[in-house]
Design brief:
With 355 residues, the chain is mainly β. It contains 2 helices and 24 strands. The protein is 6% helix and 55% strand.
């Protein structure tokens, strides 16, 4: 914890001093603490701390420094704080004073690009990015985490309601994307170099990449709000015996204080794989009661777990009290609180605050 407090002091000093070098500086972040009692075994601790410094240098350049702590380093008890994001965004056309029908923005540094509209309706993304490979994260999603100490670059070219995106790490991995929206429908078309388990495969060939298409419809009809996302991702390389493609579809409905969402994901080997059903109600403005059910229909036993939770907002702070009904494999954790942490069984409580 000593290193964590030292880092907090440094961040505070930077936030104080940064206005001398930038016109606008903000300090934001999120902290989540959670505890679990599972058959007499108790655990508690920090599960997420992500402070971010954002310095608007001028009208065209913004520097972002993001830090992440998600527990302690095994065997040391020291906080596992690290620099996760450190990048510069530049409005190129604005800086050049060009009045064009297109806009050009660059992002240079260490960052997570995320070539996706996050087209799912569940709280957790169980039907979107869970599943491949080996039941983990990432189900062909066109995204890659920041490469530590690796310089990367993204170029975004906007034209009307659409934008073209190109990302490169300069050592062989690239992603291309086209995003846009027409009325209530938004979507992405992506192509990425081979990427398995959240990391690009060295020496991957361009012709072995992954194609992705996703779209999301959102509509309001009086007090009724509807959301319908779909996605399809296909590997040009033959990945047999594992899946060569993945798809997903969902539907959500919000009516006054009630919310219902259901999503399903499937692939070449299992037409129906991950299924999630979220049901919640807000009897009063700050109180939410919810039940999220997770199923893995491709497994020998379908039930992965059920999250039963009540939460209450105290301003920006969310207090949570819940119970995880275990799945048939009791050692497998299910995602909780929007996939920010997970437990496999028993009583839990948590605090989530954004600032």
């Amino acid at each position: 914890m000593k290193k964590l407090w030292m880092l907090l002091m440094v961040l505070a000093l930077l936030a104080t001093a940064a206005p001398m070098f930038a016109s606008d500086v903000t300090f934001t972040g999120r902290m989540i603490w959670a505890a679990n009692l599972d058959d007499g075994t108790a655990s508690a601790g920090l599960v997420r701390f992500r402070p971010t410094l954002t310095a608007k240098i001028d009208d065209f350049n913004t520097l972002v420094a993001g830090f992440r702590n998600e527990g302690v380093t095994a065997g040391t008890g020291e906080s596992a704080m690290r620099v996760r994001d450190l990048y510069l965004t530049t409005d190129v056309t604005g800086a050049l004073g060009l009045d064009l029908p297109i806009t050009v923005k660059t992002t240079i540094g260490q960052f997570e690009p995320g070539f996706t509209d996050w087209s799912y309706v569940s709280e957790s993304g169980w039907e979107n990015y869970y599943g491949f490979p080996l039941g983990g994260w990432n189900n062909f999603l066109a995204d890659v985490g920041p490469f530590d100490q690796q310089m990367t670059m993204q170029v975004d070219i906007g034209f009307g309601p659409a934008a073209l995106h190109v990302y490169s790490d300069f050592i062989g991995f690239m992603m291309f994307g086209l995003s846009g929206a027409i009325g209530p429908v938004s979507g992405w078309v992506t192509f990425q170099m081979p990427q398995f388990g959240g990391a690009p495969v060295p020496g991957g060939e361009l012709g072995d990449g992954i194609l992705g298409v996703e779209a999301k419809y959102t509509g309001e009809f009086g007090d009724l709000k509807i959301g319908v996302p779909v996605f399809f991702r296909y590997s040009l390389a033959d990945l047999a015996p594992v899946e060569n493609f993945s798809y997903g579809v969902g539907v959500s409905a919000d009516y006054t204080m009630f919310h219902v969402a259901a999503g399903v994901e499937g692939d070449e080997n299992d037409a129906l794989d991950n299924v999630v059903i979220d049901v919640s109600v807000k009897p009063i403005d700050k109180l939410q009661l919810k039940v999220n059910t997770y199923l893995d229909l491709a497994a020998a036993s379908a039930l992965s777990g059920i999250d039963i939770q009540a939460n209450y907002m105290l301003g920006a702070t969310k207090l949570m009290l819940g119970w995880v009904v275990p799945g048939d494999v009791t050692t497998d954790a299910i995602p909780i609180n929007g996939d920010t942490f997970g437990f496999a069984n028993g009583l839990y409580m948590a605090v989530d605050v954004s600032f």
